[in-house]
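U., I forgot to send this yesterday:
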Amino acid sequence: MPMDPNEIETLIKAKFPDAQVEIRDLAGDGDHYAASVTTAAFRGKTRVAQHKMVYEALEGRMGGVLHALALTTSVPKD
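Result:
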């Protein structure tokens, strides 16, 4: 069963309320998305740690309901 992009955004924003999130469906199948996530919670974290934080926000859906997620993460510009 495909995952709705709004659900992805909701899960990410539940973990990072200040996040700016943009989700794009890459294949039109509800299984392959690209996400851009900007939040102050990433400040001082490595890119790998930032991506891990996003995957944790998805509560185990990555690799199951959600097959692929190309991530771009960043901290807000002050």
